Every structure is written in C-alpha cells, then in structure tokens.
Amino acid sequence: MNIALIAHDRKKEDLVNFATAYRHIFADHSLFATGTTGKRISEATALSITRFLSGPMGGDQQLGALVAEGKLDLVLFFRDPLQAQPHEPDISALIRLCDVHDVPIATNMGTAEVLLAGLKNGAFDFRKKETYGSREE
Ligand SMILES: O=C(CO)COP(=O)(O)O
C-alpha cells in the first residue's frame, strides 16, 4: 500500500512516535510525506520516505494530486486542531480529495490506530479493486 504521513508542527512528535511504534508495519509499505514531517520520521526511524514540499509550500497539494491519481491508499494526517494554518485551503483540499476518491484518512492518532490495525488484518484489500482510484468522471 502507498501511505502518506503528514503532521502539523505541534503534532510531529506524536507522528514520529507513532511511526516508531509501528515501524515494522510501515517498513512493508511505500511511504510518502510532506517535507518536514518526512525528514523527522526518516531521521527517527530510518524508514525510506518519498518527500514532497513542506505543507505551506504546496506539499499537501502534491499529496492531493497523488490521491486524485489513485496513487495513495491511506493518509495519516495528524492535524493541529488548536492552531490556524496559513495553508488551510490546501489542507481542506487534500481531505476533500480523500472523500472524493474514498481514500481512508486519519486526522488524529486514535483513528490512525484503528486504520493501522486494519492494514494488518486485510481491511485494505478493497483498495486493490479496480474501481478504486480509477475514476474518470
Ligand atoms: O503543513 C503540513 C501539513 O498541512 C505539514 O508540512 P511539513 O511536514 O512540511 O511540516
């Protein structure tokens, strides 16, 4: 599966800890991330991560483009609900595209825990069906 990892600044430590705890699972998948998040996680875990621009510079939009192209199966986005972001429209656009394309997205660690459990037990097999990620309308 192709998994995107994103965290706002005050949530980065949580995501680094999460990625460290589940390193053995993430190691079996292809990982993508916004710039600073990807740097922090790869430094902490030595996982191989394809990094895009930092979020405020367009990284959320780059990951959104992958969602639109059917190239992401799961998005783990630890958002900061207590701090306004200058690139809020980009964030909304990424979440919207996940909804458009039925891509599972966790915006907090609790949901991420559930989705990771699903990743282990085959709940993501639906992503292998041709109907997902190949919409043209
Ligand atoms: O701002 C972000 C997501 O909206 C994350 O970007 P960075 O990983 O570059 O900090």
Automatic annotation (TrEMBL):
Keywords (A to Z) from UniProt: Lyase
Keyword set includes Lyase: yes
Keyword field contains Lyase: yes
GO terms of biological process kind: methylglyoxal biosynthetic process
Domain MGS-like: 1-137
Source taxon at top rank: Bacteria
Broad class of enzyme this protein falls into: lyase
CDD domains tied to this protein: MGS
Binding site for substrate: H8, K12, T34, G35, T36, T37, S54, G55, H87
GO molecular function: methylglyoxal synthase activity
Role of this protein: Catalyzes the formation of methylglyoxal from dihydroxyacetone phosphate.
Database matches in HAMAP family: Methylglyoxal_synth
Protein name listed in UniProt: Methylglyoxal synthase
Species the sequence originates in: Salicibibacter halophilus
